[in-house]
């Protein structure tokens, strides 16, 4: 699972509490129903991977990985085998005798990963492990982490501020806001059915239209009036009819259409940018709202054109009005 | 490790005046050393430079004199114990200082370097009273304590500087891998700060070897350190034996500095 949030929202603090480097001001941390607050970090049995790798600079790669085994008084031959196994797992074979400063950032992070994994931890804590890597390495190491986690079956607790990283790597995501979890759900649900505007904003490009909810029409569905149209959309379960609400429309659920057809909204193109694989444009609606959307690269898009917009209603989502 | 930084240092053009200043500075610093070392090899009967001929007679004379040799031996012994004890205590103090945060760490730092800030004479007088109070006045142990006190800041500063280079995430990584505090210290922290520790020990030794004021007040009955013995000697005689003794001190200091250079590299030391 992943803790996702902007910097300063408390995700690293949470991780450090789990690791035992910080003592929480209150509350409880339980593993399998047992409190671990009184257990010092060296007996929690968690593996930790740090943003800055935290390799021991005076030890070789193999010594770094074998460090935890040496502490556990494993025999020399057992250390040798286990270090070799885990090194081939993270594709580092051949670098045993290098010093950490002699290998690349991506390799260093894999050493850090191997050092944690070789002890078969109960829980793997990863604190922004990709933050110091360049984009290409980031992808590579990200998939490696995912694969290793799947193979070993070790629960991993991942901290990041990068939403695409969070969604790609995790089964569950907790979006954090000012030290609290705003939403804890699968990546799909976080993205498509966020509980509040903050979550929607943080997980990707989003359009918000304020609207009036008219009446409930079935379980978790609501009829709303927005921008001169009436729509039936899915909504947050706790929402009451009549409450002020916001409609979330992801750019990919919107489509440009010529006027006159079965369009949901009418508007005027105010901005456009050609991005190669797609075009990005912004459309001002009659009631003052602005919608961002992407269109195929060869659609004729001219600033000032009157256009219609078709909404994929199955991907529209209604939330209570944001409190921010 | 230090090579990486120097590799990219750009050579700045240096003016003639600046070069001259540096040369003069070195001359100023080195003239006394060269003079005294030169004078110690004289074949004449007085300390003079340039020396009159070459002979080792004053070294023979030095080693023949009980008072000077005893002084040298006491200085070596006190210096060695000072180096060992100071380094251990200073390492513990540096670890403690690192664990403190913010304002408290600043005060702690100040307290640990106080012997550098208070005039040596004051410390010596204070210690003298204290040592008599606890029955250690005029004993080798008392002298030893004074030397440890005066050398402590050098070791402390050097070890603290080394400790600052060790990121705290290494401690945390080590703990997460199952190490106790002691294991982390022995297997991670200590190896990483070792250059600073060695340097601290050597500076503590050199400093102890040079102390005069505090030794004068705290010296044991009938015992003299080398600087004291030398001063006593010079009060009555002006023979090149003193130059020989000084040369021996210089050689010991140079060996110390060479060790630092060998083990740590002087660039990192300062």
TrEMBL record, chain A:
Family statement: Belongs to the ABC transporter superfamily.
Gene Ontology molecular function: ATP binding
Gene3D superfamilies found in the cross-reference section: 2.40.50.100, P-loop containing nucleotide triphosphate hydrolases
UniProtKB keywords: ATP-binding, Nucleotide-binding, Transport
This protein's name: ABC transporter ATP-binding protein
Organism in which the protein naturally occurs: Jiella pelagia
Pfam families: ABC_tran (PF00005), TOBE_2 (PF08402)
Taxonomic lineage of the native organism: Bacteria, Pseudomonadati, Pseudomonadota, Alphaproteobacteria, Hyphomicrobiales
ABC transporter domain location: 1-203
TrEMBL record, chain B:
Matches recorded under Pfam families: BPD_transp_1
Family: Belongs to the binding-protein-dependent transport system permease family.
Keywords (A to Z) from UniProt: Cell inner membrane, Cell membrane, Membrane, Transmembrane, Transmembrane helix, Transport
Matches recorded under Gene3D superfamilies: MetI-like
Name of the protein described by the UniProt record: ABC transporter permease
Region forming the signal peptide: none
InterPro entries assigned: MetI-like, MetI-like_sf
């Amino acid at each position: 699972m992943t803790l996702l949030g902007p910097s300063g929202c408390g995700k690293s603090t949470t991780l450090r509490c789990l690791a035992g480097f910080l003592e929480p001001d209150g509350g409880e941390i339980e593993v399998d129903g047992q409190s671990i607050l009184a257990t010092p970090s060296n007996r929690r049995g968690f593996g930790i991977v740090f943003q800055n790798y935290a390799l021991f600079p005076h030890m070789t790669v193999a010594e770094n990985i074998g460090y935890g085994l040496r502490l556990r008084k494993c025999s020399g031959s057992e250390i040798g085998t286990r270090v070799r196994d885990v090194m081939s797992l993270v594709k580092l074979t051949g670098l045993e005798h290098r010093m950490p400063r002699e290998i690349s950032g991506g390799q260093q992070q894999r050493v850090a990963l191997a050092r944690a994994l070789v002890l078969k931890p109960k829980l793997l804590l990863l604190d922004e492990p990709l933050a110091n890597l360049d984009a290409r390495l980031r992808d590579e190491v990200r998939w490696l982490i995912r694969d290793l986690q799947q193979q070993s079956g070790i629960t991993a607790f991942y901290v990041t501020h990068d939403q695409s990283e969070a969604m790609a790597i995790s089964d569950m995501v907790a979006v954090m806001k000012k030290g609290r979890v705003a939403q804890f759900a699968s990546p799909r649900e976080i993205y498509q059915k966020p509980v509040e505007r903050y979550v929607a904003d943080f997980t990707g490009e989003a359009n918000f239209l304020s609207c009036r909810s008219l009446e409930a029409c079935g379980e978790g569905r609501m009829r709303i009036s927005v921008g001169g149209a009436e729509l039936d959309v899915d909504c947050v379960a706790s929402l009451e009819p009549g409450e002020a609400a916001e409609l979330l429309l992801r750019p990919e659920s919107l489509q440009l259409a010529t006027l006159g057809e079965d369009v949901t909204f009418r508007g005027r193109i105010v901005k456009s940018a050609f991005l190669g694989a797609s075009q990005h444009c912004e459309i001002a609606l009659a009631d003052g709202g602005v919608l961002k959307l992407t269109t195929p690269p060869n659609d004729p898009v001219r600033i000032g054109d009157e256009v219609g917009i078709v909404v994929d209603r199955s991907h529209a989502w209604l939330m209570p009005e944001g409190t921010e | 490790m230090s090579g990486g930084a120097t590799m990219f240092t750009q050579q700045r053009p240096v003016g003639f005046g600046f070069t001259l200043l540096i040369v003069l500075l070195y001359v100023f610093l080195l003239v006394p050393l060269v003079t005294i070392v030169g004078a110690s090899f004289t074949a004449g009967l007085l300390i003079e430079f340039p020396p009159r001929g070459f002979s080792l007679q004053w070294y023979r004379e030095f080693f023949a004199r009980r008072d000077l040799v005893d002084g040298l031996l006491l200085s070596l012994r006190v210096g060695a114990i000072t180096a060992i004890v100071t380094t251990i205590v200073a390492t513990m103090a540096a670890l403690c200082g690192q664990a403190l945060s913010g304002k408290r760490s600043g005060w702690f730092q100040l307290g640990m370097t106080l012997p550098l800030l208070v005039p040596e004479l004051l410390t010596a007088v204070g210690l003298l009273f204290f040592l008599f109070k606890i029955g250690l006045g005029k004993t080798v142990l008392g002298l030893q304590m004074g030397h440890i006190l005066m050398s402590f800041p050098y070791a402390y500063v050097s070890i603290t500087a080394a400790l600052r280079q060790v990121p705290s995430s290494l401690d945390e990584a080590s703990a997460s891998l199952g190490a106790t505090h002691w294991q982390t210290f022995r297997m991670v922290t200590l190896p990483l700060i070792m250059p600073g520790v060695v340097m601290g020990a050597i500076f503590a030794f050199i400093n102890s070897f040079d102390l005069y004021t505090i030794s004068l007040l705290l010296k044991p009955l009938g015992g003299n350190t080398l600087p004291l013995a030398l001063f006593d000697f010079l009060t009555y005689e002006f023979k090149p034996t003193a130059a020989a003794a000084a040369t021996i001190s210089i050689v010991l200091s140079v060996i110390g500095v060479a060790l630092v250079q060998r083990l740590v590299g002087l660039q990192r030391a300062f």
